[in-house]
Write a structure and sequence with these properties.
This protein is 33% helix and 12% strand. It is α/β, with parallel strands linked by helices. A five-stranded mixed β-sheet has the order 7-6-5-8-9. Strands 1-4 form a two-stranded antiparallel sheet. A two-stranded antiparallel sheet has the order 2-3. Helix 2 packs antiparallel against helix 3. It is elongated. The N and C termini lie far apart (63 Å).
């Protein structure tokens, strides 16, 4: 049996005092007298809440527990460590393959340090809530239990993680609906995820590459009316996917969205484009080839020395 508490007065090697503390906590929680027998073994675990101010120093990078240690409450350590590693991995891959300048690696620090700081804040709030030692039950957050539970679930899911202030995020663009630059692209319900268009698109987005999603009308792929036709040569590290309600023989680069679910959930109209990062976050969205070229030019850290691809 394990419990959490922050009574600094008790000794870790005093089983009788530990039993009394357990009894008091359970009695308050259950609303009736509860007696806990003397434990046969006990140990003290010290919770630390610390985070590094930077996750990159030259050629040295840290992630996971090396970058942020915190309470085990809500079980976010492993999740956040994997997120750190993935964020760094695709950026390192682009630099190693010559597709990006080393300055791209600065965005790892810029994006993940705030996430680590937010993690410490949320886990700290959880511990302040569950480790209530005062007899009157005070000491938790001021908001209601339901609001707290909703926020806790949202934080634990990781679905709210976004990079709106990242150098890789181009603000604005689009009609105002759907995911915004910096947010996850796939903000969809389970039923929508099983639609024909999303089934195909989700599979294609598994590729660890940048994806340019262009929403076309009835024109043939690659035609002059294609939303990205006039944007000029595209980088070699970018994969283009055309999403259309009309069925065409577009090969692997065409996503057929017969019921328009992809269009609707992304709030995208014909002629719009979305630029998606390898980790599934939206970097930019807009309309017209000029807007696309401006977005690509803004991402200066991603400019490649290799020839562009038509």
């Amino acid at each position: 049996m394990a419990t959490a508490g922050h009574d600094r007065r008790r000794a870790a090697d005093d089983p009788e005092q530990i039993a009394r503390q357990f009894s008091a906590k359970l009695s308050r929680a259950l609303g009736r007298d509860t007696v806990v027998e003397r434990p046969s073994w006990a140990s003290k675990f010290t919770i630390q809440q610390r985070a590094v101010p930077a996750m990159r120093l030259g050629r040295c990078f840290v992630s996971g527990d090396a970058a942020h240690v915190h309470s085990p409450a809500s079980g976010q350590g492993l999740n956040t460590g994997i997120q750190d590693a993935y964020n760094l991995a695709w950026k390192l891959a682009m630099v190693v393959h010559g597709h990006a300048d080393a300055t791209l690696l600065d965005t790892y620090d810029a994006e993940r340090v705030p996430i680590g700081q937010a993690l410490l804040a949320s886990t700290g709030e959880v511990m302040d809530t569950i480790m209530v030692d005062k007899a009157d039950g005070t000491g938790g957050p001021a908001h209601s239990p339901r609001d707290f539970q909703r926020q806790l679930i949202r934080n634990m899911s990781g679905l709210a993680i976004a990079y709106p202030d990242s150098p890789l995020t181009v603000p604005g663009g689009g009609t105002g609906g759907g995911p915004r630059p910096g947010e996850r692209l796939t903000q969809i319900r389970a039923a929508d995820a099983q639609s024909p268009g999303w089934t195909i698109l989700r599979e294609k987005l598994r590729s660890p590459a940048w994806h340019l999603l262009v929403f076309a009308g009835s024109e043939e792929p690659g035609g002059q009316d294609h939303p990205a036709a006039g944007a000029g040569p595209l980088p070699v590290w970018m994969e283009t996917l055309t999403i259309s309600r009309h069925r065409h023989d577009g090969g692997d680069r065409r996503v057929w969205d017969p019921d328009g679910t992809v269009h609707d959930t992304l709030a995208a109209t014909d002629g719009e484009w979305l630029l998606v990062r390898p980790d599934g976050h939206l970097s930019a969205r807009g309309t017209g080839d000029a807007g696309l070229r401006a977005a690509l030019d803004r991402l200066t850290s991603l400019h490649t020395a290799e020839p562009a691809r038509a």
